[in-house]
Amino acid sequence: MQQNTRHTNRKQPHPQPGQKAGRGVAAQADLEGFSGQMLKTCGAMGFLFALFIWCHWQTARDIFGIWMRSDEYSCGLLVPFLVGYIAWSRREEIAQCIIKPSLWGVPLFIAAQAMRFFGLFFMYGSAERLSFVLSIGALLILLFGWRLFHKVWVIWFFLFLMLPLPNRVQSAIALPLQEIATTSAVFLLEVLGWEITRDGNIIHIGETSVAVAEACNGLRMVTSFFVISGLVVLLIKRTWWEKSLILLTTLPIGLLCNTIRLAVTAVAFTMIDSEEWELAFHDYGGFAMMPLALGIVVLELWFLKLLFVSPETVKDDQEDVLVVRSSSPETVKDDQEDVLVVRSSE
């Protein structure tokens, strides 16, 4: 018997109009659900942000007032803008984090507010200012979760540099810093060959007397340089111990720059007769120390790069290294390698 073979073309069944409508309704429902969730999230974030501003408005005004009237902490005005720039430079890394709000932010926010009320009740302004930054960290954990906070905690910690020191701490270190500034300036001038007579915090150089006031104790230089060093550490790609070394050398470099400033100012006062020029040189001479301090940091980074080089990045442009192993791959050992170095001709 002859068998008839039939070829059947199987085609995908066309969706019926009712199925298309069902899919469209489901997609629209998902979109509406997602939009509703996003709206609730944005509403919650807006409410918490408004609550935060309402709670800390007076504290923010006090911090801004300190920036405006205090030379020691005027550099704090730059910190919020620098934090924004650092976060923007890491936006791709931050965008990859999974946002998962954590309820741990609630007790942390309550603890920060408890510190604020403690400062209000006992009149500790430093506690109120500290709670301001702690509340920001608690809100980050509450709204975005621990994973994102793990990525940005260093940036958040940078915000502490915008806060002034407590009054007791500043009073405790002001006189020692003034003594160090006077002693180091006298030593530098004597090394340079000037005849110096010291009377307390007054330096007599020739017929000119220069008083090292409390405002010249170097605290302004140190606080400003801590902001610069923190910015450099957050932007460069180095090992953790190199960054730690940069931060540890911030204090001595700041004091060194202040010593140079005092010595140069004392010498300049012997040559300037106008009080207006003396005042201008005294007030604006400190700005020239910032590029000097930054240059010292760059020099320090360059020296560390020359002193410590990782083996993975070592390259010799004048050598091609061919490694010939004398044994099978299963029994390869480091002491069984023969290295043939072929120098390329120029």
Defining key terms:
disordered N terminus, 64% helix, disordered C terminus, two-stranded antiparallel sheet, three-stranded antiparallel beta sheet, 346 residues, 12 helices, mainly alpha
Name the structural class.
Answer: mainly alpha
Mean pLDDT, to the nearest integer, reads: 77
Q: Shape, please?
A: globular
State the end-to-end CA separation: 86 Å
What multimeric state do the chains show?
single chain
Helical residue percent band:
55-70%
Count of helical regions: 12
- Counted beta strands: 5
Radius of gyration: 32 Å
Largest sheet: 3 strands, antiparallel
Strand order of the largest sheet: 1-2-3
Order of helices and strands: HHHHHHHEEEHHHHHEE
Number of separate structural domains: 2
Residue windows where pLDDT falls under 50 for at least 5 positions: 1-12, 316-346
Give the strand content. Answer: 5-15%
Word description of this protein:
The chain is mainly alpha-helical and 346 residues long. It has helices at 17-69, 79-89, 91-95, 105-122, 125-144, 146-158, 167-191, 219-235, 240-248, 250-269, 275-284, 289-307, and strands spanning 196-199, 202-205, 208-211, 319-325, 337-343. It has two domains: 37-162, no CATH class; 167-303, no CATH class. It contains twelve helices and five strands. A three-stranded antiparallel β-sheet has the order 1-2-3, with helices on one face. A two-stranded antiparallel ribbon has the order 4-5. β2 (202-205) and β3 form a beta hairpin. It is globular. Residues 1-12 and 316-346 have low confidence and may be disordered.
